[in-house]
Amino acid sequence: MTFIEKLAKAWATSGSMLTVGLDPDPQRFPAELQGHPDAIFEFCRAIVDVTAQYACAIKPQIAYFSAERAEDQLEALCDYVREHHPDLPIILDAKRGDIGSTAQQYAREAFERYQADAVTVNPYMGSDSITPYLEWDDKGVIILCRTSNPGGSDLQFIESADGTPLYLRVAALAADRWNGNGQCALVVGATFPEEIAKVRARVADMPLLIPGIGAQGGDIPSTVKAGLDSQGTGMMINSSRAILYASTGDDWRVAAALAARQTRDAINAVR
Ligand SMILES: O=c1ccn([C@@H]2O[C@H](COP(=O)(O)O)[C@@H](O)[C@H]2O)c(=O)[nH]1
After folding, report:
1. Nearest ligand 1 atom, CA 61
2. What is the ipTM of this complex?
């Protein structure tokens, strides 16, 4: 099954457009996991188990694992998700971008080592830096377009001679040149709903990965209204810290599940 088929199935069966982001920060872990040798794996596994029913995907952010020398725990987590939640797409948030020969290795890292369903990539180095990921014809390639951070405007709003801002050039390249396999998606931040609407208008029903609700303060109703596709779906709306650290007390699992359910419901209230 391709990434897009798996995502469409997850949207339909879960009735959710929430993506649960896995940004495990050991300093914020509950007391019961402090000092545990596999704390990152155990924390993420528990979060996935209690939130999977409310989600259309999970998004582990690789930096949180590699900074802790915990890539083995990320591998174990991906194995666990495939075995216990086989219909839940795994989006590896790595934001890779490099020359083609190096990009080939990054693609192997995402799709062979972690067996992710999709990976995020940075398009700034252009087509030849994206091609190695596209050669994996059943895997999702999720391209940074209009990021959620304030500094994204420094470059992404730069206009070309015809007045098109850079982020819309990226959207056009993704829709017109890079999406030959139909497995591309774009990252557009919930902190910029006007730009979500412009990207949606440019790329038709291409899925959008939308971080920026929750801890970054993006508005859910504006985001959903701007990003719905022609089928009334089309988004993977990510929340990480607001779910992961909803409580650091003994009730952390219940609090994470509740935060995920409430976020799913807030998204669905606007559809
Ligand atoms: O434009 C972008 C692209 C990626 N991210 C990532 O999403 C999560 C957001 O975490 P929250 O705790 O929900 O703020 C994080 O992994 C970022 O690396 C993004 O925020 N913006």
Report:
1. 16
2. 0.99
